[in-house]
Description:
With 344 residues, chain A is mainly α. Chain A is 65% helix and 6% strand. Chain B has 284 residues and is α/β, with parallel strands linked by helices.
Amino acid sequence: MRRLASLVRQDLTLAWRNGHILVVLVIAALMIALIVFLPQEIATGPGEYVLDEIPGAPVRAAVLEVGGDASALPRTRAEYEALLESNPNAIGIEIAGSLEDPQVRIDAQTRVPRQTMNLLVASVELALRTARGEELPEPDVEFLRAQARVVPLNLAGVPIFLAFEVGILGFLLVAVFVFGEKQEATIRAYRVSPGGLWPYIVSKAVVFLLISIAYGVVVVAAGFGFRVDWLSVLALVVWASLFMTIFGLGFAAWFRNLSHWFFPGLAVLVLNLLPFVSYVYPVWSPGWVTVVPSYALVYALREALFPTGNPQLVVRTLITGAAWLAAAVVFCALSVRARLLKGA
Amino acid sequence: MIEVRELTHDYEGKGNPSVNEVGFTIEDGTIFGFLGPSGAGKSTTQALMTGLLAIQQGSVTYDGLPLQEQGRRFYNRVGLSFEHPNVFGKLTGLENLRYHAGLYSVPTEDPRRLLEMVGLTDAAHRRASAYSKGMKQRLVFARSLINRPSILFLDEPTSGLDPATAERVKEIIRAKRAEGCTVFLTTHNMQTADELCDVVAFLNDGRIVAMDAPRELKLQYGERSVAVEHRTNGSVRKEVLFPEKSEDAARLKALIDSGAVETIHSREATLEQIFIRLTGRGLA
């Protein structure tokens, strides 16, 4: 323990003097600024405008009666066209003729997915039937689990900040550490000490774990206060930090210096970031991306921060993560022994 | 006791070994000098003896136990000073020693005392990156003593040091020997070796070409001579004569008999001269 304590103390001192901790502090400050200063939602105005040219405007009246947004219901064609011109992404819906024989025209200014178009047609159909005074059957809706609350815009990025920043910090900074030790040849002095393999690996992992936990606690507390499932959040942050630091240490062991490491290391970081694209655009989730450990991590963090009644996702991610971590430990131990601490 | 047997190491595996069937024995409590020019294989031999390089052929045993079977605890009793100072530049001198002390599971020296011994007390709280090369060299030397080693490997310990500091380092090495420490000294500085070593081995192109106590080597390979200053025709002249040659012996006798001799000094060969004689090359 004395040996490990000495290594951790030294690595923490070096992390501070090399500016690593300062970098983490700056990133955390930026994340907190995003959380504090981004609005909870951005009002972009209605996405659809409806011009009801049926005499008496019965559809407009029906929509207003059920609480519709009046700003999306222009009274005149001139007003309607002005609104569409001012909002190029909005969709226009013109209803003419009569309630019994309506003529509906949808003006899409940009390409609209087929599914969206179908929803619009169904909505217009519903509005017309409501305006005709038809009795509409209430559909039976069964919620499989509690409805998730709407995620505020300023907090929507927190799972990403945690999943990817913690990983990048561990992977990148541990490489900087290793190359610093190679450059100064202090690793040679370590090799002829009784230090050994495991204290070397564990000390690096502990240092970046402490930094990651501090980063995670500060960012989550800034966004959620202390009313959050800390156990799940911290377990996931701990796993992410350990996995990426230990894998990063083993990976860096195979390269001579930071220049030699740069492109392969960048490739790993980009691969690790691809699940971010899937998270933002869920329609892009090819099977091979879902295998990247950070994919499950980001969704598990979202579940921990914005529960939807699926806690198994967190548990499943941690169990799978333990297997990934075990593989990373074996890879790291073999790599460090072969490339950094080789000898008799 | 350290025993090295037929140690051979070929970096490229192309039949051009850097160390070729090197063998020697070092008695406990002695200073063994390993001498040779740059590229002779000195540092490779030391790296093989300390486990920094894996042994390809031959053996290294400490008290009868092969190096490969010593385990990591072996390093609790070994100190190693590198030729090229390798310290954490972002840590102070004191922090470097404290960190290293924390790696050992045996009682260690007080880092402040070691810094004082090598004359770095005033620089204890300065970052090592701000040290001169000589100061870093001293810090590495101090670090090699932190675990009170019983076996000390020193690679060019006085390189880059001013004469006064080099003398201080030599005193410390002598003191370690007096405590029973075995010292393996790698150097190309023959004067340092002559002053410190009980036994020296000359290494050339990976092979040991001679090995004995410095005095024995001088007696075996050196040519004894006498430097004579005499006054002849009102001016002082100096001659170097080799008494083992009959004509020089006669000349020396004639000078002494003439009463013209003002000074006379016996001279012995230096280790460097012997090395040149044995290998045909210098030590640079």
